[in-house]
């Protein structure tokens, strides 16, 4: 089984470039074209969140149109920019999506499985792995102990070293790690949210972040860094299940890096909000 993981699409309804310079809709189309051209063909596409920019019905209608070009079936998982209700309404034929609550589900293909876990918190940028999420994940992993499993989620459950993104990471990461550690057949935890390719040994397995199909996050681990973004290269991850486990590749789509920044007038307020969230993360106990 071969899975293409796309993430952080940030589709807009009116087609205008995000931030005035990021053509997210066209960039998704290029990624889909690249996936369609792969040989052998992928068995499924899993989108790990931030499917649209603002969670509006118009954006999801646009997303549906763009994804119709994909030759493989597409499975959707929300991110912090998404709205569960609007997502369900736009994709009523995606019957793997639960009718209510978090959008957790599993995809089974013979000896392999993808287990998708929804860590989003409505109207919050950070994620949450609490007892209810643990129970949901356990319920999906327990009957699949004989399978090779990839767990898909939006928020990475580990620190990346990029402080302002870690401030809006997942709360309950230790609980998440303990859950994954109990299941030795989980070969990969595949995440989004950070807009760059990252790999870490975590929870007794390998955790990774896929690049965005749109804009990327500049690599800057300094404590005074904030909101550096680039226009490329965009991409996606390719996860190939085999008899010897799981092999993953990052596929780039697009041009070399070009840096850009959001409007300077927005930066102080945005940074203050992130610093407040970082302080909250440091003082919040496990949920």
Describe this structure in words.
By secondary structure, the chain is α/β, with parallel strands linked by helices. The protein has one domain: Metallo-dependent phosphatases (Purple Acid Phosphatase, chain A, domain 2, 4-Layer Sandwich), CATH 3.60.21. The chain has seven helices and 16 strands. The chain has helices at about 25-35, 55-65, 85-90, 130-140, 165, 175-180, 265-285, and strands at about 1-5, 45-50, 75, 105-110, 110-115, 125-130, 150, 170, 185-190, 200, 205-210, 215, 230, 235-240, 245-255, 260. A six-stranded mixed beta sheet has the order 4-5-7-9-11-10. A five-stranded mixed beta sheet has the order 3-2-1-14-15. A three-stranded antiparallel beta sheet has the order 12-13-16, with no helix packed on it. β10 and β11 (about 205-210) form a beta hairpin. α1 runs parallel beside α2 (about 55-65) and α2 packs across α3. The chain is globular. About 40% of the residues are buried.
Give me some keywords for this one.
287 residues, Purple Acid Phosphatase, chain A, domain 2
Tell me the number of structural domains: 1
Q: Mean pLDDT across all residues, rounded?
A: 91
Spans where pLDDT lies below 50 across 5 or more residues: none
Tally the helices: what do you get?
A: 7
Question: How would you name the CATH homologous superfamily?
Answer: Metallo-dependent phosphatases
N-to-C span: 35 Å
Return the CATH class: Alpha Beta
Relative helix content: 25-40%
Strand content: 25-35%
- Which architecture name does CATH use? 4-Layer Sandwich
The number of strands is: 16
Order of helices and strands: EHEHEHEEEHEHEHEEEEEEEEH
| CA-based gyration radius | 18 Å
Biggest sheet architecture: 6 strands, mixed
Strand arrangement within the widest β-sheet reads: 4-5-7-9-11-10
- Global structural class: alpha/beta
Provide the CATH topology: Purple Acid Phosphatase, chain A, domain 2
The coarse overall form would be globular
């Amino acid at each position: 089984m071969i899975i293409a993981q796309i993430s952080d699409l940030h589709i807009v309804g009116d087609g205008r470039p995000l931030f005035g310079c990021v053509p997210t809709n066209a960039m998704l189309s290029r990624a889909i074209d690249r996936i369609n051209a792969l040989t052998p063909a992928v068995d499924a596409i899993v989108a790990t969140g931030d499917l649209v920019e603002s969670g509006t019905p118009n954006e999801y209608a646009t997303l549906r149109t763009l994804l119709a070009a994909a030759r493989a079936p597409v499975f959707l998982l929300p991110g912090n920019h998404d709205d569960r209700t609007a997502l369900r309404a736009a994709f009523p034929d995606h019957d793997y999506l639960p009718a209510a609550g978090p959008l957790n589900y599993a995809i089974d293909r013979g000896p392999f499985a993808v287990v998708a876990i929804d860590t989003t918190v409505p109207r919050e940028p950070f994620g949450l792995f609490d007892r209810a999420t643990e129970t949901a994940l356990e319920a999906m992993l327990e009957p699949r102990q004989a399978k090779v499993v990839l767990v898909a989620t939006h928020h990475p459950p580990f620190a990346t070293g990029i402080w302002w993104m870690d401030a809006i990471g997942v709360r309950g990461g230790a609980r998440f790690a303990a859950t994954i550690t109990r299941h030795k057949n989980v070969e990969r935890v595949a995440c989004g949210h950070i807009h760059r390719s990252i790999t870490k040994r975590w929870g007794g397995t390998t955790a990774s972040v896929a690049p965005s199909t749109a804009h990327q996050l500049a690599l800057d681990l300094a404590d005074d860094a904030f909101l550096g973004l680039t226009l490329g290269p965009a991409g996606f991850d390719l996860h190939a299940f085999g008899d010897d486990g799981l092999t993953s590749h990052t596929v780039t789509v697009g041009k070399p890096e070009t840096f850009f920044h959001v409007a300077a007038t927005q930066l102080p307020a945005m940074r203050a909000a992130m610093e407040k969230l970082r302080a909250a993360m440091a003082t919040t106990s496990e949920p």
